[in-house]
Amino acid sequence: MSVLHVLEVEALVGLSVFGVAYGAITLVLWKLGRDSERRRRERLLREPAGRD
């Protein structure tokens, strides 16, 4: 294998790992945002009208 091929494979593996990590972090943040929004909505429904 040539040096260029090894570097190309390493770059592809690095980008793949970065993509998976980025996707996982994005998914976790999205889920946390949805959960906090749902809790806020439920809290607003439980509070009596006229309170902020």
UniProtKB/TrEMBL annotation:
Transmembrane segments: 12-33
UniProt KW keywords: Membrane, Transmembrane, Transmembrane helix
Name under which the protein is recorded: Heme exporter protein D
